[in-house]
Amino acid sequence: GPGLIDVLLSMRGTVGRIYLPPDANCLLSVSDHVFRSRNYVNLVVIDKQPELQWLDMDAAEQHCERGVGVWPWAGNEPAGSDGEPDIVMACAGDVPTLETMAAVALLRQLVPDLVVRVVNVVDLMTLFPRDVHPHGLSQATFVETFTADADVVFAFHGYPRELHQILHGRPAAARFHVHGFREQGTTTTPFDMVVLNEMSRYHLALEAVHRARRTPARVPELMEHCNQMLERHRDYIVERFEDLPEVRDWTWS
Fold first, then answer.
1. Which of 111, 137, 67 has its CA nearest to residue 210?
2. Lower CB density within 10 Å: C or N end of the chain?
3. pLDDT digits (tens, 9 = 90+) for 137-147
């Protein structure tokens, strides 16, 4: 129910807190924090199904304390580089994180010259300007994280308009291209739900090469692969009533 995020965002002042841990260790860290809090309404969004584990406990605690952070091990920016990425892939939520990471894996495999930065958001309130919410990042930290002008493909658990509302006032807010819940869904497979809402790894990868600063070699190969996989997915679930094995059993390598 993404509408719960709407409810918290509309609450008086800074009473509401919204957390979207990407994995179990982050959930443990967030839960420890919210159970100790007082005089707040905390919303923690997490799936009940087994999922991939992205961070060990120490890294998860540090990540949750910051609320948002770059995952340099997931992107392919050169170590020590002062340059900026061609595209920023951002995510908030467990399923959006999974699809973003799978999209990044596709980009790194098929378009290795594309420089990608991965940003994960645990505390949604960090995206607010600091004068709107005490958890908000300073403008300097926000730019350090998301760059000043690179396009951002953002996979989000809630409605896209919610994120656009939060990002209002940030530098070049129109460069954030949000894929979230679009009121599309039915009794279907888990992956088909993200396909119907255009938040699948294939949609995110296609958006990334469309929005990137430049068009490196092999982009047509990536686009053809993504479109073919979406067609295969549709045919497969109609025939088998389950997701493709390469989607269902995918892991980060």
1. 111
2. C
3. 999 999 999 99
